[in-house]
Amino acid sequence: MDEVGLTVPPDAGAVSAAELRERVGQHLVFSIGRGATAARLADWRLALSYAIRDRIVVPWFQTAERINAADRKRVYYLSMEFLIGRLLDDAVANLGLESAAREAMAGLGVDYDALVRDEPDAALGNGGLGRLAACFLDSMSAVGVAGLGYGIRYDHGLFRQSFEAGWQAEEAEDWLAQPHPWEFERPEASFPIGFGGSVGPGAGDAGAWHPAETVIAVAYDTPVPGWQGRWVNTLRLWSAKPTREFELQAFNRGDFLGAATPAVLAETISRVLYPDDSTPQGRELRLKQEYFFTAASIRDILQRFERRHGDLAALPDKVAIQLNDTHPAIAGPELIRLLVDERGLAFDAAFDIARGCLHYTNHTLLPEALERWPAELLGRVLPCHLEIVERIDARHARESAAAGRPSDDGTAILGDGEVRMGTLAFVAARRVNGVSALHTRLMQETVFGGLHALHPERIVNQTNGVTPRRWLHGCNPPLRALLQEAIGDGWVADLDRLEALVPLADDAAFRERFAAAKRANKVRLAPWLAEQAGIELAPETLLDVQIKRFHEYKRQLLNLLETVALWNAMRQAPEVDWTPRVKVFGGKAAPGYRMAKLIIKLINDVARTVNDDPAVRGRLQVAFPPNYNVSMAERLIPAADLSEQISTAGLEASGTGNMKLALNGALTVGTLDGANVEIRDRVGEENIFIFGLTAEEVARRRAEGYAPAACIAASPRLAEAVEQIASGRFSPDEPERFRAIVEDLRGHDRFLVCADFEAYWQRQRAIDAAWRDRAAWTRSAVLNVARCGWFSSDRAIRGYAKEIWNAETEF
Ligand code: 26W
């Protein structure tokens, strides 16, 4: 009996199928207001979701009480993106209720799997950065960090992708078109957020900001249950609301639009996710989004701290803030503003406290992806913050000069009329980290070279990870069952235990079972792939997948060129016993990224030609299912045999798909880039297919002046493929369609596709041969699973807690 006299379930776990069925029935009637006969699939899904949610709220309260009672240091993860996917099945798995839920729904005549598939993805992110944030939330709960995620509750997540005549088409995503059972609106947790206006003089160091417009940030909380429901953290997403819902006077004057305008303008701030994952558009609305959620979060953090602590100097001991890339980098100036303007601290004291709390993760070295806001724009939207940035830069310059650094070493925050958000984040942070060993080293040697020299202790590495709950236990039932039998299920919370599989790699019977699990996943995938992409997947076919956002540095074009060359080779040598392959491409291009969209069209045009060609029937097929997202990844990854990680070395900060695919028994073909290097280090040279120029060699080739035409001339099969594309072999209706791709390839080829082509081709032919020796292939696959436990996001979070946040873990 709790304080309001409610009988609440004892704990997250322990519920029988009968009890659960009872609860589902009650929710259908009393929460959704439907009878069983009238209920649609979505109603049953909501009813089950509420019944599962009931098992989470009390552990949620208890976690908060434990954190308060122990006055634990809190970790706040600020991210513009959380690429969550579906929540029902993940919550059921984390509570250990899968069999109870299946049985309960079966008892009500409803198919559990159909329910799971009925849920829309929460696609509040673009790609790697957003998905990493979601995996980190799961792991912070799994290891018992007092963590809280802050982000934006976009009305519309990442666009829905479809193909019109092979061209990418985008339509607004609408996840909130139906009730979202996993969130609780928190109207009491709301803050006014100002924009524009002017700054007047204030007391001492303080300035007095008079914003021109204000919106209200309202919190929506989603519980984040950890493994076995022992710990439940919170994801708090902010939604923008108007200060006044409705201009009645305007309405009475018949100016209906005028009456609604303030509300529409306010709500625009959290309306939609920007679909760019590399080149910032530099839009004012984007800056407002970044400030909106960051300012609301900082206010919420300070308010929660001050509820229990009086001395602001203790803030860094009780609060660690992680900035997920530069998107929330305004957090530094905002925290300093509140400490100086509203709490009366001196600037330097405020700066030290702020820096003591802040930590920044960099996820890309691509120059065009580093945010730089025009100082004019920042000064107009956030006049107070520009002043603070100028003071931070002045202080930094003094520090730099004192360290004997030349003043023009490029480490200034302000320059060329811009505010370099990466430099601001670095200067105002206690720790800065990269997301793989190679990436972190390149950060120190290139983009952050000057700052690293000034603060050699500040940059540390935390190689990315993925949650084994969603990306192995959840998405791969056949392999999960085999692991359960072979080594128990301790691996779910302690993925290093997969190491126990190493000896089984030499056990033929086990290998047989392992291959059968992969086969079962391919058989399960086949009908879906036929329906979505019009291809036939036979179980013995090598399933070769490249699934990730489209970007030239990820080199989907290199994969496509190899595919065309293979097609040619099969047609020219039909007598050869070619290894049958299905090439799967999956991924979206930012709507404004013309070259990426042209490559998507090329892939679809080549797919049509190859799939219609009787000469290679059953030997080569190309599939490109539209609208790649988290749920599609959960479908494809367990069935994959070969993982394409072929980026230009030095440009993929880490990659996380590479980890998910290796953990599900796919072998990797890849360059020594990002975390591929650490995967190679762990699985062993002989259990991975590495090819291509290293990061150093890429830098050298570029520095020496790289001539792609020479590479093309030196490779007849590459030349043939390029010529076919150039001459409209795959676009007879518009022969010039791919001129831009061919001209760039022959003229610039900034991502060294031509330089790596022959090495890639050779490696792929070696893979054809390796596939023939199934025992050896399966042995390597087992060793990949066994030796990739380190790529758990639990390990990564433990690293952050120990080496960056200085925060406790409960488990
Ligand atoms: C402002 C536009 C914008 C939006 C997002 C620029 C850059 C981004 C992200 C940083 C891009 C991203 O998702 N980077 C990926 O982050 C993953 C998680 O660390 C890495 O594994 C990938 O290698 C990296 O490309």
UniProtKB/TrEMBL annotation:
It is an enzyme of class 2 (transferase). Keywords: Allosteric enzyme, Carbohydrate metabolism, Cytoplasm, Glycosyltransferase, Pyridoxal phosphate, Transferase. One of its GO terms (molecular function) is glycogen phosphorylase activity. One of its GO terms (biological process) is glycogen catabolic process. The modification N6-(pyridoxal phosphate)lysine is found at residue 660. It is found in: Cytoplasm. Its cofactor is pyridoxal 5'-phosphate. The keyword Transferase applies. GO terms for cellular component: cytoplasm. Signal peptide: none annotated. SUPFAM superfamilies: UDP-Glycosyltransferase/glycogen phosphorylase. It catalyses: [(1->4)-alpha-D-glucosyl](n) + phosphate = [(1->4)-alpha-D-glucosyl](n-1) + alpha-D-glucose 1-phosphate. Its main location: cytoplasm. Its EC number is 2.4.1.1. Allosteric enzyme that catalyzes the rate-limiting step in glycogen catabolism, the phosphorolytic cleavage of glycogen to produce glucose-1-phosphate, and plays a central role in maintaining cellular and organismal glucose homeostasis. Phosphorylase is an important allosteric enzyme in carbohydrate metabolism. Enzymes from different sources differ in their regulatory mechanisms and in their natural substrates. However, all known phosphorylases share catalytic and structural properties. Belongs to the glycogen phosphorylase family. This is Alpha-1,4 glucan phosphorylase. It comes from Tistlia consotensis USBA 355.
